[in-house]
Write a structure and sequence with these properties.
InterPro entries: HTH_LacI, LacI/GalR-like_sensor, Lambda_DNA-bd_dom_sf, Peripla_BP_I
Keywords: DNA-binding, Transcription, Transcription regulation
Radius of gyration: 26 Å
Largest sheet: 6 strands, parallel
Shape: elongated
Pfam families: LacI, Peripla_BP_3
Protein name: LacI family transcriptional regulator
Order of helices and strands: HHHHEHEHEHEEHEHEHEHEEHEE
Strand content: 15-25%
Number of domains: 3
CATH architecture of the largest domain: 3-Layer(aba) Sandwich
Structural class: alpha/beta
GO molecular function, one term: transcription cis-regulatory region binding
CATH superfamily of the largest domain: Response regulator
Number of helices: 12
Distance between the termini: 73 Å
Length: 334
């Protein structure tokens, strides 16, 4: 069996903290004890590890990451940014998939505490009060990535969802479209659902197209849900010439439905997405979309968490990164 730091301390008849000081700051330990510890380490062939150091210093150089759906391609770019920043700052990541399940999320917070993570990046949609209270109870520093919680003073990194949606719909209107519908996230259930709907509605009202505010159907995060929502939307609002989808995955589900009923994009309808996931430029037709800087959001969230852990505060509490419109093949002037 592999020796532990406790075995070394027992054999040398010293405390665990003394063993740690011999390994990390030997000049702080008197020679007699230092010699005993070194002899015990050699006799037991002890190899210190990160977890052992964590037991002593209450610091593991590990960060917990919570995401809602590891199958969603949006989170691939986010995690890549987190990973690169973590490597640069000498951290490792422990990634958990919450499936947007409240009890599972709370259990992960407890697990992170038991594993002695130094902090948490929370990228799992809305920060419910239960999550906030649990992390406060364990005194775990945490940062929000690609989400926000204005009711709490928690550091966050995301974009302006309302403005991004507004710019997407404005682009359709300025391309000549007047009959525009939307496939969005359920309002109140996700952090971006309401602001993206608000951006859609603001653009319509600005151009006097209020009639189409009701041409909205909601989908539960996945491609196949958007496919079904597109069927409902076009049954209820059959004269649409363009659709704003609240995610690229929703845009792909919408285009798939249109193909199955014999309509091509953008010849019959224009479709614009949101996120600019990697598949957006590989899909046929290539998606016009609002690009979120997912890599940068992930990268900055880890930098911000590192800043919070090491200094106890952050220079910018709520950080908004720039987005941009990417025009490709799924839209055309009407």
């Amino acid at each position: 069996m592999k020796s532990t730091i406790r075995d070394v301390a027992k054999l040398a008849n010293v405390s665990i903290s003394t063993v740690s000081r011999v390994m990390n700051a030997p000049e702080t330990v008197i020679e007699e004890k230092r010699v005993k510890v070194l002899e015990a380490i050699e006799a037991l062939q002890y190899q210190p590890n990160a977890f052992a150091r964590g037991l002593i210093y209450k610091k593991s150089d590990t960060l917990g990451v919570m995401i809602p759906d590891i199958e969603n391609p949006y989170f691939a770019g986010l995690i890549r940014g987190m990973q690169d920043a973590a490597v640069e700052l000498n951290h490792s990541l422990m990634i958990c998939n919450t499936d947007r399940d409240k009890q599972r999320t709370i259990t992960y917070v407890q697990n992170f505490f038991e594993k002695q993570v130094d902090g948490i990046v929370f990228a799992s949609d809305a920060l419910h009060t239960e999550y906030y209270e649990e992390m406060q109870r364990y005194r775990l520093p945490f940062v929000l990535a690609s989400t926000n919680a204005p009711e709490f003073d928690i550091p966050s990194v995301d974009i302006d969802d309302e403005q991004g949606a507004y710019e997407a719909v404005k682009y359709l209107i300025e391309s000549g479209h007047r009959r525009i519908g939307m496939i969005g996230f359920p309002l109140g259930e996700t952090i971006s659902g309401l602001p993206r709907y608000d951006g859609f509605r603001r653009a319509l009202r600005e151009y006097g197209l209020n009639t189409f505010e009701t041409c909205v159907e909601y989908a539960e995060h996945r491609y196949e849900h958007a496919y079904d929502a597109a069927a409902l939307l076009l049954t209820r609002c059959p004269g649409l010439t363009a659709i704003f989808a609240a995610s690229d995955e929703f845009a792909m589900g919408t285009i798939s439905y249109l193909r199955d009923i014999g309509k091509s994009v953008p010849e019959h309808l224009s479709v614009i997405g949101f996120d600019n996931i990697r598949m957006a430029q590989l899909f046929i037709p290539k998606l016009t979309t609002i690009e979120q800087p997912t890599y940068d959001i992930g990268y900055r969230s880890v930098q911000k968490l590192h800043e919070l852990i090491t200094t106890g505060e952050v220079s910018v509490l709520r950080e908004k990164l720039p987005h941009q419109l990417i025009v490709r093949e799924s839209t055309r002037p009407y």
